[in-house]
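User: Please go through the entry that follows and flag anything odd:
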Amino acid sequence: MSKKVLVVDDEQSIVTLLQYNLKQAGFEVITAMDGEMGLELAIIEQPDLILLDLMLPKMDGLEVCKELRQRRVSTPIFMLTAKDDEFDKVLGLELGADDYLAKPFSPREVVARVKAILRRVVYSNESQEDNQNIAEKLTIGGLAILPEQYEAYFNDEQLELTPKEFELLLYLAKHKGRVLTRDQLLSAVWNYDFAGDTRIVDVHISHLREKIELDTKKPTYIKTIRGLGYKLEEPKTE
């Protein structure tokens, strides 16, 4: 079954371009020309990935992204922006976007990134169909990660994570106790060159800390190693 991609953009030429190239690559494509319709289709159609423009009529991309995450819709969101504004990029990531790309862009690059994201996303309903292959659970303190089920728990409560948050947490857990640079995390989790834009890592680390740390100012799980990067470690018991 082909994967379904929702394209939300108010420029008809861009919608047509993306629709053509994605269909050529084997994706099913649905489209919306404003934020309100994009939000509605995202909920009703349950696409596998959303390409979301930042500047939209009726409801902008940031509002759509925020609303979807508040509704606990974890579909990967790929934000498209005509602005080369660091604030907009970071804000989009903070609101739950998984990726972004500034216009003008190459349709080939968009398709390549869409494929890369979807290759890395394993939905829990798919993994549950093959219980024979469930990978070993990773346990660190009160944190439990089920890789094949794409689930993580903290103190026995399931965490609400976006796909990229889960992938980052899993990578940190698999390398428990090791210091990982921001560039290493970019390469491993995002799987392509972000041209040194390591702020995306910091934003996602911040999100994870909000979900697994009792005090984000004094983290016991994800430690910042000044001048180097981050490491996930077993919390020390008093």
About this structure: The longest strand covers residues 4-8.
